[in-house]
Fold this protein.
Amino acid sequence: MAITRADVEKVALLARLQLTDGELKMMTTDLSQIVTYVDLLAEVDTEGVEPMAHAVEVSNVFAEDEVRPSLPREQALANAPGRNERGYLVPPVLGG
Amino acid sequence: MSLINSTATEALDLLAKGQITSVALTSAYLQRIADTDDQIGAFLRVDADAALARAAQIDQRRQAKQPLGKLAGLPVAVKDVLCDSQTQTTCGSQMLASYRPPYDATVVARLKSADAVLLGRTNMDEFAMGGSTENSAFQLTRNPWDLNRTPGGSSGGAAACVAAGMTPLSIGSDTGGSIRQPAGLCGVVGLKPTYGRVSRYGLVAFASSLDQVGPLAANTTDAALLLEAIAGHDTQDATSLDAPVPRFSAEIDRPLTGLRIGVVREHFTTGLDGEIEHAVRRALDVYQSQGATIKEISLPHSKYAVATYYVIAPSEASSNLARYDGVHYGHRTDRAELLDELATEQKELESAGDREALKNIDNGLVRMYRRSRAEGFGPEVKRRIMLGAYALSAGYYDAYYLKGLKVRRLIRQDFDAAFQQVDLIAGPVTAQAAFKLGEMAGDPLAMYLVDLYTVSANLAGLPGISLPCGFTQSGLPIGLQLQAPPLAEDTLLRGARMYEQATEWHKKKVPI
């Protein structure tokens, strides 16, 4: 299936990626080519076939409901690109 | 004889008898790395001081007759995809260039408690996405058999360092062939275990329903030894299988009697290189001469495996990689540049009077995500995130993702039916021997099709192994792939060992 530049722009927003003009162009070509190949799946008769999300369909794996220490705050924040002593810092969300 | 010419199993025996020390063994491998890795580029980081300190500590404990783990004193290289609290874990990405995990992956913890000596971190395609290691953000890795060619990928560093004798043992990960394909292209043994056999806790996620960690080594016995050390149930990974782990290495020399080997009709269609087909057929003759029955079988949905994989794997990747948001860890874009960019855009839209675009302009946080991810990820990772986001997006979910999951079941059912008739399936690992560096650049689909023979095992959750079965006229290794039913790693390894015992391919050394 052909993918348009507008499709790619929309998906780039969903995927939280900022793409340059060149990347948008390349991505439109590449994704069209790959999706056209993947369209091969349409010819398979999958009527009544259960989707298989996992190779080993283990279900109901329970952990003991007990209190355990979690990652200490200092360690959890150690790799943060922006932080103060208590949490993560991000750029302003409202009002630029 | 130089220490690095012993197998891991032999070295372990020499260590146990006190005939060599771990310091001597580790030094010999570090020397080999120093001598050859500037040509090959298998390692991203070599931690010589820590490795030697660890080796010395193990030697001391041995002298003091203290109990030791099952890999005590043996060097192991680790693909840079597993968290280790004592070193960076980059996953071959600028996104994680300075990431220091706060914990150890279960596999890393098990290697440490087995008293292995961790040599360093091996190169890989960024986030394990690729089949040539050329997608690493940091460096190229070259095939030790021909420096103009790729070692394969994504565990290219892991395979190249074993092939070049820089380590006896190496850990890789395999989502669509990333252990078996580089093992095949580099002429070493690589095993992808049954899904759930080895814990994924602390493995940087690519496609969680397909990812498995596994061993690479110069021979099957050494691979079995390493698998024993890392396999087994882990409560930290809910998909980990609660199944006993046999002592694979103790049983491996026992040949399988009445072995039935399946050969997949669809594997020998157009596209398979003649020299590879010849080598694989010769391998089947070897099995036949050992009393195995060869039976032609069909996996009717195998032609859909690559398409299925390139729907499911990118979908899972787009979801898994959403965590790299520039907030919690990993790369973040420059704040001043970000705010500047937004202000400029806003001004431009205001002066153009484009109200619609003004309304839709990213807020600061969204733009921070988008810029951070654009700067941190390389082209292939972006391509797969986009592909996955597309396949999961409204309107396409049924046609792609859900369809892929249904075909995945049909692929698994083909294998279940085949394994009613045969014990192992044998065939090629790849259709071609190692390709030239840069040969596939700019053709992502051609690169994806390299995974033709390997992706099915991941989709179906089966164990598979790649082992050397010959060389092309130009001296490039050829791999034989064996696949087995879930949890039949013992059969897989014993079957592989039968072939290895009858042949000398695995003993051939690289020209470097």
Summary: The domain at 3-242+254-262+422-507 of chain B is CATH 3.90.1300.10 (Amidase signature (AS) enzymes).
